[in-house]
Amino acid sequence: MSVVADSGGPQWPGISFGAPAEGAGAVASLGQRVGGFLVDIAIAAGVSWLFTAPEAPKNWSLLAWGVVTIVCVGVIGQTPGHFVFGIRVATFGRPGQRFLIGLWAVPRTILVGLVVPALLRDRDGRSLLDKLCHTVVVKTR
User: Fold this and answer.
1) Are 132 and 111 in contact (CB under 8 A)?
2) What is the pLDDT of residue 98?
3) What is the distance between the alpha carbons of residues 122 and 127, in angstroms, rounded to a whole number?
4) What's phi and psi for 106, nearest 5 deg?
5) Measured distance CA(41)–CA(27) in Å, rounded
6) DSSP 17
């Protein structure tokens, strides 16, 4: 958590939309997001390799990662890597549907695959892809 004293009082990522500074519902750190992504690509590569061995999985890993990410984020709001790092994707600005991402998982996954939009973040910790897809990544614990 990065709390910064400001002329208006303490600040942290997500304060402008009511996210807590710590714990469940707080904005996930970049480290947690990257860690979850690395776990997901390792799982996708391993599963793909099971089907292509002894050859390298090549683009099958990317396909496996994309399918798992779209299905998992769209239906339950988190991938296996997100689960390991205690984070999930939540919709932004629709309180009654806080964990139902649905079809927003498709463009979100494509943008994550491009990496750059996922790394560009505002002071609330929301990435460019989060803004485009009306989402925010939050901690679950």
Assistant:
1) yes
2) 52
3) 6
4) -70, -60
5) 22
6) G
For 17, the token pair is: 């939309």
Q: How many structural domains comprise the chain?
A: 1
What does DSSP say about strands 4-6 and 9-11: parallel, antiparallel, or unpaired? antiparallel
Decide if 130 contacts 28 (C-beta within 8 A). Answer: no
Cα Rg of the chain (Å, integer): 16
What number of residues does the chain have?
Answer: 141
Q: Which two tokens stand for residue 39?
A: 């776990």
| Residues 6+ away with beta carbon under 8 Å from 12 | 1, 2, 3, 4, 19, 21, 26, 27
Within 10 A of 138 (CB to CB), how many other CB atoms are there? Answer: 24
- State which residues form the domain around 20: 4-139
Peptide bond into 57 cis (omega under 30): no
* Residue 103 amino acid letter: L
Instruction: Give strand pairing partners of 5.
Output: 10
The distance of Cα 97 from the centroid of its chain, to the nearest Å, equals 17
Mean pLDDT by runs of 10 across the 141 residues of the chain is 58 88 92 95 94 91 94 93 95 59 86 78 87 88 90
**One-letter amino acid for residue 77 of the chain:** G
